[in-house]
């Protein structure tokens, strides 16, 4: 049990590290995918089956795929200048201190808490999915609806941002407009004063 | 035995790595988005650990919502990156400093 | 018409004249202006005489409030009235003021004939008459102060009458400012009275006089001072300003920049005597403070002698008469300090006559000399201007206090009173006034001889042009010469030695200070007696000696004065610098004030307010924004770093706290 944890944990950490230091964005995203896989394994160990599979299916499958599409669409110059490593030691130290403080913030009796060996009593008969669904649809239904609204907004927002009006891009015929032409749109009568009439009479 | 602490340590380490990556990034904007996803992953791991530890599925529900929001935010973020690329022609971080005061 | 209505008529008639003349402009013209004002003052004079004929024999007092000016509710509880107090003191003043004012009005028709501001002049002198009337008929300190300030204002307007002249503007401003200093003390005294007695009406204040005398006041530190002394000293400061006592006398010589008629009216007969009148009015209060009486005595005596000395070296004929006025005002204050209030008022009355006469005669000389005022350019005018000559001589004899002229009876009484008084400083005062009598004789006859006798020191053409002034000018001279001769003789007994004296009911004299009674014990209470006694007194011989000295130096040995001036350069210099009063004021107050202003301008205004607050704020904002702008680099990773730092700090704080 421990070994599996450490294996998956190290996979996740290393993948995360490489994802961050990559020059090539595609590689970065792919390492991120690996980090998610490792993470999914960890969550399985924690008896959150539903979530780990959702992570893989939805997050990796959809969101990371989207990432990859966009990254590949952009013409990224991978020969960018290297970042300056002048401040690296200080910042690493800072990050280490940060992490240390985070850990220091843990309550004292956390050690005593063990991971669950058995599931909760009242949901023993259901699968994990059903158990999560119970909580989701009974206790947090409002948040559920709001999450749906957020997704809707995100869809509309993303499309609105990217959408370009077609007239700028393409030159194509609009058949409907051609059929519905009226004479006024084509011919215009202008009245002018006659000139040079006296000369012509003579 | 694997206790909650292990998961929490893992989450902290992931968070620290992503923060470091944010600050040290001089290359392109995609790295920022990757770091954000990593941070969210760290937080989610924390929630899952606590949910398992306290034997209550509220943590799971919360992770669910975080995932939803993260997906939405990734979509919009990528849309913005595309727009920036369309208008500026490059997504090197050093070139996107137009909000300079 | 009741006495009350007649007295209000006397007060208000000149005001009406002033308003009509002042605002009438082209509608009434020059003749209309002088007519309406002379009518107004004439009515005032007749009314004053009527009131006097009723009040003086009976000695009664009429104290009536006309209306309530202000009524303050609790917690102030002050009520201010406007009304009149008609008693012998105010009646005498009313008669003097209206009489001299009337004569000055008539005189001005001739003197100001060629002036462009003719109507304005008449309006001003009528206004002045009104203010002075309000002052003397006041029945409370508030109205007194109103008249006080009013005469100060009109004096300023009149001294600066020829406002195109720089010197006139400066003189008027100086007069007003120095007066203001006196008024400052005056109003402090009035405030103290209000606080400690709760009212400003004479009746209330005087009835509480004895309770005031027993109280003390702590001004600074732990020194307790007698309340009555403080009040009287402060009120006297006001009198010092108005009546030009040392050291607030510096404005009077410069006030000669104004036309001569106003010098006669304001600075001889009326305004400057307001201080003397006020001291007489507060006799119930000042009698209870020996310190104040001493102070008045010493200040008056100092002024009497030292300003008289200055008159000896002046070359402008009006300045000589001005310094003479200063000296005589000192005499009046000596009388007040010695508690001989009746004598002081008597001298005020006689002085009003002969000093106005001297000023108007000097004005006549000036007209005759076509506005030349320097005596060194005069001489030998005796034959050319006979009426002026005789009236000037009468005035000078009255001033020198030679019997039987008016000045003798009043001045001599003052000198005797100073001798008999036994309060501190009285012997010093006696010496001063006695020597001052000789000095008076010297300067007045010096002026007389230089102007009218001797060989003419002007060009032949100018000498031919000199002629006697028109009747509107010499008629007032004659009308003033008559009382200068007779009024002393006539009023000697009633004023001083009758029982009760003419002004007695208005004045309070404590028995221990009553020098006039002591004088009465010595005998010579009838004017004839006094005149006979004169050759026995040292002062008489001092005066004759003074006349002799004047004759000697200016007639017999004309070059002596110059020689003396060269021999005694230092003394001459001190006298010419007027003891340095003007220089002191200039250096300390004027330049000091300017320097202070300049300092505050440079340091306070420019450096602190402009530089630090106004410009400094701008500079600070610019500096700060330059520094703060570094944070907005535009690079996202910078922003992330800052966010991380903030998160870090928050964590630490939560952890520790």
How would you describe this protein?
The complex is a heterotrimer of chains A (202), B (101) and C (657). Chain A is mainly alpha-helical and 202 residues long. Helix content of chain A is 65%, strand content 0%. The longest helix of chain A is centred in the N-terminal third of the chain and has 25 residues. With 101 residues, chain B is mainly alpha-helical. Chain B is 77% helix and 0% strand. Chain C is mainly alpha-helical and 657 residues long. In chain C, α11 runs antiparallel to α16 and α18 packs parallel to α21. At the A-B interface, α1, α2, α3, α4 and α5 of A face α1, α2 and α3 of B.
Low-confidence stretches of chain C: none
DSSP E strands of chain A, number = 0
- Oligomerization: heterotrimer
Shape of chain C: globular
Question: How would a crystallographer describe the biggest sheet of chain C?
Answer: 2 strands, antiparallel
Largest interface (CB within 8 Å) is between:
A-B, 87 and 72 residues
The value of Rg of chain C in angstroms is 31 Å
Helix content of chain A: 55-70%
Give start-end ranges of low-pLDDT stretches of chain A: none
Individual helix count of chain A:
9
- Give the proportion of residues in helices of chain C: over 70%
**Biggest β-sheet of chain A, characterized?**
none
Please tell me what the overall shape of chain A is: elongated
Q: Would you count the extended β strands of chain C for me?
A: 4
Q: For the terminal residues of chain A, how far apart are their CA atoms?
A: 118 Å
Given helix and strand content, the structural type of chain C is mainly alpha
Summarize the structure.
The complex is a heterotrimer of chains A (202), B (101) and C (657). Chain A has 202 residues and is mostly helical.
Helices and strands, with pairings:
The complex is a heterotrimer of chains A (202), B (101) and C (657).
Chain A: H1 2-21, H2 25-45, H3 49-73, H4 88-104, H5 128-139, H6 141-162, H7 166-169, H8 175-179, H9 197-201
Chain B: H1 4-24, H2 29-54, H3 58-88
Helix pairs in contact in B: 1-2, 2-3
Chain C: H1 3-24, H2 29-58, E1 62-71, E2 79-86, H3 88-111, H4 118-136, H5 141-159, H6 166-197, H7 202-207, H8 209-213, E3 216-218, E4 224-226, H9 227-242, H10 251-254, H11 260-269, H12 273-281, H13 283-286, H14 290-311, H15 317-337, H16 341-368, H17 386-399, H18 406-420, H19 426-452, H20 460-465, H21 471-497, H22 515-521, H23 527-533, H24 538-556, H25 560-567, H26 569-576, H27 581-628, H28 636-656
Antiparallel strand pairs in C: 1-2, 3-4
């Amino acid at each position: 049990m421990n070994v599996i944890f450490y294996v998956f944990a190290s996979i996740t950490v290393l993948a995360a590290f490489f994802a961050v230091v990559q020059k090539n964005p595609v590689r970065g995203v792919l390492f991120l995918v690996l980090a998610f896989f490792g993470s999914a394994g960890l969550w399985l160990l924690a008896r959150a089956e539903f979530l780990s599979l959702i992570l893989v299916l939805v997050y990796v499958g959809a969101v990371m795929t989207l990432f990859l599409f966009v990254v590949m669409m952009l013409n990224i110059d991978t020969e960018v200048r290297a970042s300056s490593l002048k401040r690296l030691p200080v910042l690493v130290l800072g990050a280490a201190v940060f992490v240390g403080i985070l850990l220091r913030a843990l309550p004292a009796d956390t050690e005593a808490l063990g991971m669950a060996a058995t599931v909760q009593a009242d949901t023993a008969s259901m699968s994990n999915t059903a158990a999560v669904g119970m909580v989701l649809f009974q206790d947090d239904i409002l948040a559920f609806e709001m999450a749906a609204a957020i997704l809707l907004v995100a869809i509309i927002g993303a499309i609105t941002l990217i959408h370009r009006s077609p007239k700028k891009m393409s030159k194509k015929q609009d058949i409907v407009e051609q059929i519905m032409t009226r004479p006024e749109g084509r011919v215009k009568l202008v009245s002018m004063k006659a000139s040079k009439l006296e000369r012509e009479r003579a | 035995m694997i206790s909650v602490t292990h998961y929490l340590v893992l989450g902290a380490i992931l968070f620290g790595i992503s923060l470091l990556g944010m600050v040290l990034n001089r290359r392109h904007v995609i790295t920022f988005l990757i770091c954000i996803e990593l941070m969210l992953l760290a937080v989610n791991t924390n929630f899952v650990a606590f949910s398992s530890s306290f034997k209550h599925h509220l943590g799971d529900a919360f992770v669910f919502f975080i995932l939803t929001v993260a997906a939405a935010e990734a979509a919009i973020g990528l849309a913005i990156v595309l727009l920036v690329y369309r208008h500026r022609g490059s997504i090197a971080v050093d070139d996107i400093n137009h909000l300079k005061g | 018409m009741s006495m009350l209505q007649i007295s209000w008529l006397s007060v208000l008639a000149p005001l009406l004249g002033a308003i009509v003349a002042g605002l009438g402009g082209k509608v009434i013209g020059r003749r209309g202006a002088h007519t309406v004002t002379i009518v107004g003052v004439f009515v005032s004079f007749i009314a004053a005489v009527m009131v006097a004929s009723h009040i003086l024999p009976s000695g009664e007092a009429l104290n009536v409030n006309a209306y309530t000016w202000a009524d303050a509710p609790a917690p102030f509880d002050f009520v201010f009235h406007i009304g009149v107090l008609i008693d012998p003191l105010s009646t005498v003043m009313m008669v003097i003021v209206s009489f001299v004012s009337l004569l000055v009005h008539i005189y001005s028709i001739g003197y100001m004939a060629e002036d462009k501001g003719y109507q304005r002049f008449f309006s001003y002198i009528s206004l002045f008459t009104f203010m002075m009337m309000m002052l003397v008929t006041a029945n409370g300190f508030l109205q007194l102060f109103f008249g006080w300030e009013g005469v100060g204002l009109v004096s300023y307007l009149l001294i600066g009458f020829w406002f195109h002249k720089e010197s006139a503007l400066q003189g008027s401003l100086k007069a007003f400012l120095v007066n203001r200093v006196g008024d400052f003390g005056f109003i402090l005294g009035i405030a103290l009275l209000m606080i400690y007695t709760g009212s400003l009406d004479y009746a209330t204040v005087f009835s509480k006089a004895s309770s005031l005398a027993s109280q003390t006041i702590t001004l600074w530190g732990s020194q307790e001072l007698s309340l009555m002394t403080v009040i009287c000293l402060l009120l006297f400061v006001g009198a010092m300003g108005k009546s030009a006592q040392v050291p607030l006398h510096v404005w009077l010589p410069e006030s000669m920049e104004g036309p001569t008629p106003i010098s006669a009216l304001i600075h001889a007969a009326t305004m400057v005597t307001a201080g003397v009148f006020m001291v007489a009015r507060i006799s119930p209060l000042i009698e209870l403070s020996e310190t104040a009486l001493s102070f008045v005595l010493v200040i008056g005596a100092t002024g009497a002698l030292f300003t008289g000395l200055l008159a000896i070296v002046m070359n402008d004929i009006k300045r000589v008469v001005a310094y003479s006025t200063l000296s005589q005002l000192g005499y009046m204050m000596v009388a007040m300090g010695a508690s001989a209030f009746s004598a002081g008022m008597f001298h005020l009355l006689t002085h009003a006559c002969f000093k106005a006469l001297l000023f108007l005669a000097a004005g006549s000389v000036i007209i005759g000399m076509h506005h030349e005022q320097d005596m060194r350019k005069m001489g030998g005018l005796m034959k050319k201007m006979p009426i002026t000559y005789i009236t000037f001589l009468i005035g000078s004899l009255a001033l020198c206090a030679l019997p039987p002229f008016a000045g003798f009876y009043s001045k001599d009484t003052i000198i005797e009173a100073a001798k008999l008084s036994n309060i501190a400083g009285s012997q010093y005062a006696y010496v001063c006034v006695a020597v001052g009598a000789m000095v008076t004789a010297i300067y007045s006859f010096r002026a007389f001889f230089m102007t009218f006798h001797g060989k003419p020191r002007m060009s032949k053409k100018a000498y031919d042009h000199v002629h006697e002034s028109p009747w509107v000018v010499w008629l007032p001279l004659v009308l003033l010469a008559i009382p200068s001769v007779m009024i002393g003789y006539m009023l000697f007994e009633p004023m001083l030695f009758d029982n009760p004296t003419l002004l007695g009911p208005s004045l309070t004299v404590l028995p221990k200070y009553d020098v006039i009674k002591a004088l009465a014990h010595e005998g010579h209470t009838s004017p004839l007696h006094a005149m006979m006694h004169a050759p026995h007194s040292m002062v008489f011989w001092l005066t004759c000696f003074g006349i002799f000295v004047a004759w000697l130096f200016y007639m017999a040995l004309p070059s002596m004065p110059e020689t003396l001036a060269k021999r005694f350069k230092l003394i001459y210099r001190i006298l010419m610098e007027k003891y340095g009063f003007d220089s002191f004021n200039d250096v300390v107050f004027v330049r000091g004030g300017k320097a202070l202003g300049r300092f505050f301008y440079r340091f306070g205004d420019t450096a602190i307010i402009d530089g630090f607050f106004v410009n400094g704020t701008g500079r600070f904002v610019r500096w700060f924004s330059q520094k703060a702008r570094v944070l907005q680099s535009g690079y996202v990773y910078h922003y992330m770093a800052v966010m991380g730092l903030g998160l870090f700090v928050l964590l630490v704080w939560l952890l520790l706290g």
